[in-house]
Amino acid sequence: MKAKSTILMIACGIVAILLAASLAGQTPPFDIEALKTEAEARLKEDMEYWGKLEFRRQVTRRFIGKDGEVTEQLDYDLWVRPTAKGFDEELRRIDGREPSAKEIKEHRKKGRHAKQYEAYSAQKLDNPAGEDIPLSRFIHGPPHRLVGEETIRGELCYRLEFDAQPEPQKGKVTDRLVAAMEGTVWLTVEGAHLAKADIHVVRSVAQGPAGVNKMRMRMELAPVDGHWLPTKIEVVSDLKAPFMAIRRHNTYLYSEYRRP
Fold first, then answer.
1. Does the global pTM surpass 0.70?
2. Separation between Cα atoms, residue 240 and residue 121, nearest integer Å
3. Any residues with CB less than 8 A from the CB of 1 and at least 6 apart, and which?
4. 3-class SS at 164?
C-alpha cells in the first residue's frame, strides 16, 4: 500500500512538472488592441518623417470608359522637395516629353502632392465623395482579426483583416463610407509600422445625387531610415455624379528618397 502511494505521488509530481513546463511555454494571448494603438502612433511618426524628405513622384491618371477601356491616360514625373511652407513640386516630364515653362508653373501652383500629403500626414485618405477619411480608422476603428503572418520586404508582418460594418442610420458620408469598407492591413511585428494596405468598398454610398459606387485603395510602403514610407498608392474609383459617371484608376509611385 505504501509502495502504491509512493508511485502515485511520483506520478502526480511528474504530471505537475509537465503541466508547469507546458504553461511556461505557452504564448501569452495576442493583444490586438495594443498592437493597433501602437500602429496608429507609428503611422503618424512615419508620415511626419515623409514630409522631411525629397523624392521622385510618378503619377499615372487613367480615365475609364463604361466597358472598362482606358479612354485617356496622363503621365507626370515630378521631383518633390520640402520647403518652409510645404513642398516644391517640379514637373520634369509629362506624357513622356519635356514640359513647357507654363506647364511647370501650373503644376507648381496646383501643389497636388502637398494636398495629398496634408491628408495623409493628418492620417486621412482623400474621399472622392467630398470628405476625408482618417487612415487611422482603418487601423484602430473596425474590429480586426489576426489571420496570420507574412514577410514583406524582408520584415515579418502581422496580417489583420476587417469586415464592413452595418450602415449607420445617421452621420456624415465619411462614416457611411468607412462602414462600407473591408480589407486587410499588414503591420510589422517589429515596431508596428504599416507595411501594406488593401481596402475596398463593398456597397455603394450615396451623397445626394452623387456618391461612390466602387472604390479600392492599395498602399505599399518600404523601410527608409527606420520609418516605413509609401512606394506605391493605387486608387480605383467608380463615382456617380448628376447625369454622368466618373471612373478613374490613379497610380502614384514614390522613389529615390533622400534628405534635402
1. yes
2. 28
3. none
4. coil
